[in-house]
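Thread: "does anyone have the structure for this chain?"

Original post by V.I.:
We have the sequence but no experimental structure in hand. Need at least a predicted one for the grant figures.
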Amino acid sequence: MRAPILHLLLIASLIGASLAQAQTAAPQSAEISPDAIKQREQELEAARARQKSAEEAQAKLKAEITSLGQDRTQLNQQLIDTAANVRTVESKIDEAAARLQSLNGREQQMRSSLDSRRADIIEVLAALQRAGRRTPPALLVRPEDALQSLRTAMLLGAVVPELRGRAEKLASELGELVALRKTIATERDQLALDRDRIRNDQTRLTALVDERQRQQASREKDLDAENSRAITLSRQVGDLQGLISKMEQDLQSAAKAAEAAKQAEAKAAASAKSGPAAFKDRSRTSPAIAFASAKGLLPLPVNGNKIRDFGGSDGIGGVQKGISLATRPGSQVTTPCDGWVVYAGPFRSYGQLLILNAGGGYHVLIAGMERISVNIGQFVLTGEPVATMGSTSQVASILATNASQPVLYVEFRKDGTPIDPGPWWAANEGEKVRG
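Reply from O.Q.:
Generated one for you, tokens below.
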């Protein structure tokens, strides 16, 4: 039973080293060596180089987007494509995180199983020690070493017949553990790459959104005043339908949007195109097709899991008038349809609320975001980035199940009445439209 003794000796030596390091820490901190000073200078220089590189990349991106900004079609194309990239990587990150959680759980189960049979394992490894005259490896620190020792011993015939079955079983379990650890390492590397990629895409998306809003501000000189008035008016109504009516009647930009939606109805209804191809024109300034004809084509506005469905109980004696999607913190929110913004701002227990007039008497309400990046009166395309989620729920508890998780609430209305949005959602990725 030398393995446990060796294990204890190893722990004791580590503790001793830690104590020795702690005892010498104070004198070392008082006197910094020339090598340490040189290392710090090198680290500072590297940090300056990284900062300079980031500034140059930012300047290049700004110049590129400024040139794009003169062409509305290209700007819209870049906005929609970059937002789609962000949401694709968000999905990959979520899937990788779920796989890692499962793999880590499996690894823990295997380690616990091996640890519970430590006595039997030590006996096998001790037999290897006697046969090979060398110290057995630390099983749970380096399972690869234990596996190699077992395989070598069996190849050399060093394991006696009565131990061979136990050794082979142990080798199989260790081999599975080693393979599992390699899979976990690969998943973690890919997850790190995806996180780097999404940071780059988000930086680009932020710059594109800023350029879009800069152009919008140059066209609408009184945006700030309109937005302030919208929030003031929103405090005078108590429900969503009252808010929609108030905006489209009393707010100039929202009234213009409602009128544009009305005028576009006939054009959209008469459109020869009725499938995803109708959405390919990035320069359009009215809906590609009538909203009623878009059933089975629209993408969900955010990546997430549905936690509340239309028509279900709201927990206080009523029914759900929309759907609720639990999302990851900071998720990108995109428009599910073409439409005009008739409200964008806070509203009662809905957090930040966005209302789109989709034409034909249809309105789409999206709530629970932390920040909205479009203005009242603005026309937005399907798949265009319009908001970002926060880190916690911003909506009332009847729309969410966990206050610590961001929740997006989506509601469709026809002539003021909530309707089931289910028929409008695309069944799979191939059927979705992207602006």
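V.I.: this helps a lot. The CA atoms of residues 234 and 242 lie 9 Å apart.
O.Q.: and Residues 2-17+39-211 form one domain.
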